[in-house]
Amino acid sequence: MTKDRNKQETAVIHDGYESADMLGSLTPPLFQTSTFTFETAEQGEQRFAGEEDGYMYSRLGNPTVTVLEEKMAGLEKGERGLAFASGMAAVSAILVALTKANDHILCSSGLYGCTFGLLSMMNEKYNISHDFSTMETKDDVRSLIKPETACVYVETPINPTMKLIDLKMVAEVAHEFDIPVVVDNTFASPYLQRPLELGCDVVLHSATKYIGGHGDVIAGVAVGKKDFLDKVQMTTQKDMGGVMSPFDAWLLIRGLKTLPIRVDRHCDNAEKIDEKLRSHPNVTRVLYPDDTEHPDYHIREKQMRRGGGLISFEIKGTKKDAQRLLNNLHFIKIAVSLGDAETLIQHPATMTHSVVPEPSRTDMGITDQLIRLSVGLEAWEDIWDDLKQALDQL
Ligand SMILES: *Cc1c(COP(=O)(O)O)cnc(C)c1O
């Protein structure tokens, strides 16, 4: 069945669903139900005992959500997918499942702000410590692994500096110590980067971003080994309860069908905008992984199909100038989030990374002059015209 569907463009449309099983409905039905009825008491007993397959209660599984999980597993080339109420529900369920009190987590330097917050909370409450590493070399990783290290947690590209981490290298070192590697693949999407194929163990997404792609849903997904995710489903997901709603799964199934064409268009546009930004006199630095001048370009070539839709850049001037640039835009929207049809712009130092204390922020390369752009699906000429007129006014 799957053998003629191994191209992602086809898989996003057909995987995980047979219309013949659903009265011929071309698109997967929305099973907007909290619970499922049993024909007999004995059937209920067998379902709960795991002796008969079938749905019981939507926190334990829902057919619409299953379709999305199967599509995501296929895209990330993993054994199974597990859907969550948000990206953070996925991050927290996976990290809590992998750790116990007094463990240690080794992280990439540069993490999504709420993931950073979760790690701080786990440290305070359960003494689960963490270290950050730039992970530029094998020794960077190896030297921070301790006997109590329970997992390595990586984001690449890193938000908002667009630094890249060599996932194959990190997985090789972690596996010398039998430590699983978890990758937040939100920025790349499975169309551009597949961490499991590079040897990592669990991949997760804020499906709010490129997976949904239309700015209308908050959701998360994890993909990995069936044994591990079955356990997560029956422990941290079931009992902490961060499950995806059937309607959100339905929206994501719809969004996923166009993932490859959307992401290609995001990349086409970002390449043009990168080139234009580089030649603007009020721009001092541009950070885009697909640019040959990017310090990690060689990693992009190795592990990502293309550079993605996010660009960060620094302008001449002060924080006020950065804010003035945002205020002078006509149709580009000032907003956090990314991966939507609309081009979105934000100021990391005062928005997504405002909680990071000033010295660490500077260490992470997040200056007052740094601006992050999520390049949308509009005509690139219009995006550039809007950016240019705002940059010209500085
Ligand atoms: C948005 C985001 C998250 C959190 O996802 P939510 O869906 O908002 O909970 C996690 N990691 C990255 C890289 C993100 O961009």
TrEMBL record:
Alphabetized PROSITE patterns for the sequence: CYS_MET_METAB_PP (PS00868)
Key words of the record: Lyase, Pyridoxal phosphate
EC number: 4.4.1.11, 4.4.1.2
Keyword Manganese attached: no
Entry GO terms, CC: cytoplasm
Superkingdom to which the source organism belongs: Bacteria
Gene Ontology BP terms: methionine biosynthetic process; transsulfuration
GO molecular function, a single term: pyridoxal phosphate binding
Reactions it catalyzes: L-methionine + H2O = methanethiol + 2-oxobutanoate + NH4(+); L-homocysteine + H2O = 2-oxobutanoate + hydrogen sulfide + NH4(+) + H(+)
Residues modified to N6-(pyridoxal phosphate)lysine: 209
Pfam families xref list: Cys_Met_Meta_PP
Cofactor(s) annotated in UniProt: pyridoxal 5'-phosphate
Family: Belongs to the trans-sulfuration enzymes family. L-methionine gamma-lyase subfamily.
Protein name as catalogued: L-methionine gamma-lyase
